[in-house]
């Protein structure tokens, strides 16, 4: 962490700040110290959230950053956030010389892949109520900290449907 702090910029990010826009190439990776970020895109004018990030998470548009292609989504703060921002080249150099950081980064990438896999399977197999119950059981931090309209978007339902589900449980 000390080496990371030496090459990263500590940032205080207000809520509802866009850190990366769809169509832009990502050059920065964030490590969240405190706060919450989300990844989302627009489809037919609707905001679709597909991932939340909290303390200790690395966040970027990884495909965009690694392949230098335009991002397919936005990165936004949900709540006031403190994060370390590190440029791609500085980060790659750092993980080459810091095996512990490389391992932590790889573990976070695997966790992220697993989360996407679970979300994908849940959308196919489960009803909206089952998806919400699964979220309550596996990620209560999201339910506690994230506004309902973002949770509804993440679950693939409307805020009204989410409200009805919450009233039934």
TrEMBL record:
InterPro entries: cNMP-bd_dom (IPR000595), cNMP-bd_dom_sf (IPR018490), RmlC-like_jellyroll (IPR014710). PROSITE patterns: CNMP_BINDING_3. Pfam families: cNMP_binding. Residues 1-112 form the Cyclic nucleotide-binding domain. CDD domains: CAP_ED (cd00038). This is Crp/Fnr family transcriptional regulator. It comes from Marseilla massiliensis. The lineage of its organism: Bacteria, Pseudomonadati, Bacteroidota, Bacteroidia, Bacteroidales.
């Amino acid at each position: 962490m000390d080496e990371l702090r030496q090459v990263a910029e500590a940032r205080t990010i207000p809520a509802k700040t866009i850190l990366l826009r769809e169509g832009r190439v990502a050059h920065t990776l964030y490590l969240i110290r405190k706060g919450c970020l989300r990844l989302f895109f627009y489809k037919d004018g609707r905001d679709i959230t597909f991932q939340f990030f909290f303390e200790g998470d690395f966040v970027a548009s990884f495909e965009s950053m690694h392949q230098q292609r335009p991002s397919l989504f936005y990165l936004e703060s949900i709540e006031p956030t403190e994060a370390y921002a590190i440029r791609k080249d500085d980060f790659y150099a750092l993980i080459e010389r810091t095996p512990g950081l490389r391992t932590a980064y790889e573990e976070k990438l695997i966790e992220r892949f697993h989360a996407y896999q679970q979300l994908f399977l849940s959308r196919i197999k489960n009803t909206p109520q089952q998806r919400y119950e699964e979220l309550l059981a596996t990620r209560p931090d999201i339910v506690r900290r994230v506004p309902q309209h973002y949770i509804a978007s993440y679950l693939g339902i409307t805020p009204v449907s989410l409200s009805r589900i919450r009233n039934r449980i």
